[in-house]
Amino acid sequence: MTTTEQSPTAHDSGTSATQAFRAIRQQSRPGEVSPERISAVVGRVLAGIHDAIREEKVTYDEFQAAKAWLIEVGEGGEWPLFLDVFVEHVVEEVAAENQQGTKGSILGPYYLPDQQRLPSVAALPTRPDEQGTRLVFAGQVRDTDGNPVAGAELDIWHADAEGYYSGFAPHLPDGLLRGVVVADEQGRFEISTVQPAPYQIPTDGPTGKLIESAGWHPWRPAHLHLIVRAPGYRSITTQLYFEGGEWLDSDVAQATKPELVLSPQPLGDGRVRSEYDFVLERTR
Ligand code: DHB
Ligand code: FE
Q1: Record's family (predicted)?
Q2: pLDDT value of position 7
Q3: CB of 108 closer than 6 angstroms to any ligand 1 atom
Q4: Pocket of ligand 1 contains residue 229 by CB under 6 Å
């Protein structure tokens, strides 16, 4: 990556992720959380912190270092990055306890609503010189009884072959490698795109600094993000990974599941093809 004014930084990604989060939250008009619930959950979180301080004999120096780091995460807009990498997978685990059909995974900080709607056989927007292996991703959306879900939407987004997301890395055009594909009457779809690269948490921001200081690694395996939805069905937010992919067994976000791994096969013309069927649960 050449260093230009356009090169992506943690600050760009962090700030954009915070803005995107605020915009989506405003649209969804969340309800109030009750005082009882706040007291119960926050009480437990604080008790966990108190335990860690006692058991690890945390010093005043360490406490002040933590405060300085927390301030930096806020100023860099990195709360969505940090929380989605280190916390969201457990929220998803709890949400999935009563969910049938395709396994879910974390949403992550890089979802953008209202992308271009595309027909059931479609190519995601790419640049003329888009790098990366051409991928054809096809399948069918069905309900838990095996019936096709006509017109299901596959809201799909993923990183480019360098691991960057459009809308967050300023050198990428808006809408790149994003789209809402509408399945046909049989719930079928065929999406042409490129294979994403593994994603690295921006190393120049506070989340990256924490990971480096702790001696952890900042990588997520290459993945496609999807929200699959249809009226009358519970939406599934998930991710699909690639067999044999680097970091598949040590995802920093702990968001992989064995059921969510694709095995793309060569088509003989430089492209690879992978099939995956989604199963949605009825809500009524
Ligand atoms: C983060 C980035 C991702 O692409 C993802 O899928 C999950 C989390 C992050 O930087 O927090
Ligand atoms: Fe991602």
Answers
A1: Belongs to the intradiol ring-cleavage dioxygenase family.
A2: 57
A3: yes
A4: no
Cα 108 to middle of ligand 2, angstroms:
6
This model's pTM is above 0.85: yes
Confirm whether 22 is domain-assigned: yes
Kindly state whether residue 129 falls inside one of the protein's structural domains.
yes
Please tell me the total count of domains within the chain.
1
Residue 259, token pair as written in the block: 């059921």
DSSP string, 200-246: E--TTSHHHHHHHHHT---EE--EEEEEEE-TTB--EEEEEEETT-T
Residue 83 lies in domain: 10-31+78-280
DSSP-derived secondary structure letter, 148:
B
Nearest-ligand number for the alpha carbon of 13: 1
pLDDT tens, position by position, 116-148: 999 999 999 999 999 999 999 999 999 999 999
The CATH number assigned to the domain holding 105 equals 2.60.130.10
> Average pLDDT, whole number, for the chain?
95
Give the separation between CA 125 and CA 176, rounded to whole angstroms: 5
Q: Which ligand is nearest to the CA of 253?
A: 1
Residue 141, in any domain of the structure: yes
Considering the domain boundaries, does residue 157 fall inside one? Answer: yes
